[in-house]
Amino acid sequence: MTSAMSSTSCKLLGLLLxxxxxxxxxxxxxxxxxxxxxxxxxxxxxxTLAEQHVTGAQIAVLNHGKLVWSAVxxxxxxxxxxxxxxxxxxxxxxxxxxxxxxxxxxxxxRGEFDLDKPVAQQLAQPLxxxxxxxxxxxxxxxxxxxxxxxxxxxxxxxxxxxxxTSMEPDNKLHLHFTxxxxxxxxxxxxxxAQFVVEQHLHKPIDILMQDDLFTPLAMxxxxxxxxxxxxxxxxxxxxxxxxxxxxxxxxxxxAAASMTTTADDLARFFSGLLGNKIFSDGTRxxxxxxxxxxxxxxxxxxxxxxxxxxxxDAVGLAYGVGWGLLMRTKxxxxxxxxxxxxxxxxxxxxxxxxxxxxxxxxxSDNGELAFRPLLEHILGDTVTPWEWEGYTPATIESQRQHx
Length: 403
What we know:
Elements: H1 3-16, E1 20-23, E2 27-29, E3 35-37, H2 38-51, E4 56-63, E5 66-77, E6 82-83, E7 90-91, H3 95-109, H4 119-122, H5 151-155, H6 187-201, H7 205-214, E8 237-238, E9 244-246, E10 260-261, H8 263-274, H9 281-287, E11 292-293, H10 311-315, E12 317-319, E13 324-326, E14 334-341, E15 344-351, E16 356-362, H11 368-379, H12 386-389, H13 393-401
Antiparallel strand pairs: 1-5, 2-3, 4-5, 4-16, 5-6, 7-10, 8-9, 11-12, 12-13, 13-14, 14-15, 15-16
Helix pairs in contact: 1-2, 2-11
């Protein structure tokens, strides 16, 4: 370790000591029935985050569907140093997708939206005649498979669309396999589902979700756009070396990744979801029913000849409506969603049988290195498919070298 790195590590460790926690229970129940004290959880988290040079973090744990421990660590901003606190809004990145899918299921329960009616039939005019899709959908609408694409396929990442149009040689939307036949993660697919909902309800998605989801659940620090009330306490984002990357500002709502939130607000969300405060138990079960099983070795494999793995099969890896699923674990079924962006690395997982969840939000490109030790030690989660998720040191390093 260089002297500069050593100095940085010592400074960061000192800053992480600024962390604070809110514990509504003296102990956290792990998935295997053992427990860890809130004090021990905070000490372990502080040490782990410092070792991995994570600039700032928020962590929350639920047992039996209720928040039992919440803690914050490190910095939300630098120059001058600004400690992370429980109200600091952080960029949730792709966790937005699953929260959006949950909102869509409220529409389904009320009979206001059809997951299985093709998108082309739900729009008043051809997709490429809308200004937002005039260019990027020009080839998609010519594909004979396009009329079969449904919102369920978009929300389960099985439509055939790539993650982003920027990955396509012509920067346009294309289908790469028969819709509904396999998994391929697609942010563009989620944003298309947003467009369909907005056209159907004639309101922007940020207002819809604020009125129907965030406000009823008292998620006062959560929004799909950057609201003025949030500006005084939003976490900046930092790279691998702890250098400033960007402020977090989201002027336009995107269901794929624009949500900012706190770990405490997400705890309110998961508590409401598990407690049937968002919709009925039957709708939750429908949302968390597998649309398709996943057998690949990695979440983002090449389109052609994707290598298969055994890790996912061992835990029943699948995708439902907006959520990754683990259907066969020794702790019962679980649902999860990760969030990955520049200077924002996040993870959330809930085990249905015990209604135990853990939420980790960070404003650092080093955040993913801390996920496994935190989840295993504090929650006792030994079943997440770490390699498929890309949360092993080797896969993280490979992704850094070949983004």
